[in-house]
């Protein structure tokens, strides 16, 4: 009889142990995460954490920028737009009334925002399209002048510039705006059809005693009717009606005063006039392969774009002089007088300068009305 009682006591103890173990398992399983979607980009958005719980739950975030709300067994996590470059992290702790807790990590990536274009683009007067690489995690807008249109494309942003028919260089600034910041890009349209007009010319010329004196005059650049790349400087020469020829290269934006060009004949003096260039070494040259060049400059800070041409020979050239081969640079364009219709030197054919324009520079200005 005593053996039977001991057996039943052992069975009872086993039952109690088993019951306690089941209670512990139930407590562990009373709260668990079923699904979560709380890995965010830099843009303001929400995600959810879904849990399984045997009792009501509460949730709290350890970071102010990460906020939570609870509806049943779903925790909604909200994050604002983030403009930092490096990602950030938070932890949401969820509890139930049985004192079970789970901790869920929340992450938000740093924001990407870049406009990979240059600050300034120089384009011809023809209609053209250019793509600016853009990558942004943020919504952005683009402000632009009426003669520029644009659209978002896979590669970034396409801009189309309409043909410039104003007769002057023009500029337009587009402004990208996002929560991350702004980016400005300026487009300049400038070409052969923007050259003609009124200019202020500054140069040095021979004064009394062959000293150099500075002068400033207004001139007109007239476009040739048959060759749009050729222009004539009217008013530069002191001889009325004589115009100096120049040529514009739309690829390099170079305006060159042409050398060795026949300008006309003065019957009363029996003078033949040609353009010549002068080298810094003091020699006169009528070779048509030489010219006096100037690369266009535009001050994009000005309200109106007026091209400026500072004539300067940057390459230099070699020629045979009295002392042998000489290396020099061209520093002037001028009008020279010859005794025959041949710009050659010697045999009393070269009679001398009529005009000389040393260190010439010209800038377009508004025409007088």
TrEMBL record:
Which residue spans adopt a coiled-coil conformation according to this UniProt entry? none
Q: Which InterPro entries match?
A: BACON (IPR024361), Ig-like_fold (IPR013783)
**Signal peptide stretch:** 1-22
* Pfam families to which the protein is assigned, alphabetical: BACON (PF13004)
Instruction: Give residue ranges for domain BACON.
Output: 59-109, 156-188
Q: Which UniProt keywords apply?
A: Signal
What name appears for this protein in its UniProt entry? BACON domain-containing protein
